[in-house]
Amino acid sequence: DVKVTQSSRYLVKRTGEKVFLECVQDMDHENMFWYRQDPGLGLRLIYFSYDVKMKEKGDIPEGYSVSREKKERFSLILESASTNQTSMYLCASSFPGVGSPLHFGNGTRLTVT
Amino acid sequence: AQSVTQPDIHITVSEGASLELRCNYSYGATPYLFWYVQSPGQGLQLLLKYFSGDTLVQGIKGFEAEFKRSQSSFNLRKPSVHWSDAAEYFCAAVNQAGTALIFGKGTTLSVSS
Fold it and tell me: In this predicted model, what pLDDT tens digit does every residue of A29-42 receive, in sequence order?
């Protein structure tokens, strides 16, 4: 079974802090994704990566950056956390190819105070 | 811009009754379409997918979906709902660039006894 593990289930940070959300997958997937999920807005794509050291902006990249130094790990970075970044963050991975299904982690609920 | 629309925010169905969740997409070519389910506190799990061929696709947990090009729809159905089906359901489509999934805003299903 594919396992996508997000290091923290709940996280509380202060405004202005630098925040790291970690995601690891164990299926040798090339593709990895970060989405944020908000009530009434569904899932919105922040960043994705097709290979090590490669990244592409999604629909809402502002205020975020990512790092992919190893194939299995994809980190989401909030350079200076703000209250409007309070949200559920979901990591996903997949094999390459259009339509390859995404495998999701259980999410990190981040609260910025 | 490409979009996926789920017109119903919340649906309540009696246990044992049939279910239909609606999904519409805006996309010119044949889309790659998915339905995911999210149980409380969990990540998203793939229910089924449509790429081409037979327009009625079967998924896990007794779900099926029908692709109707004329209506730009991909509705999810189940003949008899169980209490454990209470969850949030997301319809998704591969974006025009073929790089990531675009999600609808979700439909929350409640099951009454």
Answer: 999 999 999 998 99
Q: Measured between CB atoms, which of A44, A56, A104 is closest to B44?
A: A104
Q: Nearest-CA distance from B47 to chain A in Å?
A: 10
Question: Nearest CA to CA, how far is A6 from chain B (Å)?
Answer: 10
CB contact at 8 A, A46 and A76: yes
Residue B28's pLDDT is 61
Residue B88 per-residue DSSP state: E
Contacting residues for B45 by C-beta, under 8 A, at least 6 apart: A104, B36, B37, B38, B39
Tens digits of per-residue pLDDT, A56-71? 999 999 999 999 999 9
Mapped onto helix, strand or coil, the DSSP state of residue A98 is coil
Predicted confidence (pLDDT) at residue A44 exceeds the cutoff of 90: yes
Question: Using the beta-carbon criterion (under 8 Å), do B99 and A42 form an inter-chain contact?
Answer: no
Contacts of A102 in chain B (CB under 8 A): 44, 46, 101
- Label the pairing between strands A31-38 and B107-112: unpaired
pLDDT tops 70 at residue B8: yes
What letter would DSSP give residue B29? S
